[in-house]
Amino acid sequence: MRLPRMSATSTTLLKVVGFSLLDAVALYFLVLLAWEKSWLFVGLIAAGLLGLNVLAFSRRLYPLRYLAPGLFFMVLMVVLPLVYTVYISFTNYATGNILSKSQVIEVLTRRYYLPPDAPTFTFRAYGGEGGLYALFLFGSAGQYVLFPDGRLSRAEDHALQDADNDGIPEAIDGYFLLSLAEVARLSGELQKLEVPFGEGVLRLTTLSTMRVYSPQYAYDPVRDVLTDLRTGKEYRPQGGNFVAADGEKLDPGWVTFVGFTNYLRFLRDPLYHGAFVRVFTWTVVWAVLTVVLSFALGLGLAILLNDKTLRFRKLYRSLLIVPYAIPAFISILIWRGFFNTEVGLFNRVLTQAFGIRVPWLTTPFWARFSCIVTNVWLTYPYMMLVSLGALQAIPEEMYEAAKVDGATGWRRFVHITFPLLLISVAPLLIGSFAFTFNNFTLIWLLTRGEPVVEIGSRAGATDILLSYAYKLAFMGGRGSEYNMTAALAVIIFVIVALISGISFARTKALEEVSRGL
Question: Minimal CA–CA distance to 477: which of 207, 120, 95, 93?
Answer without folding.
Answer: 95
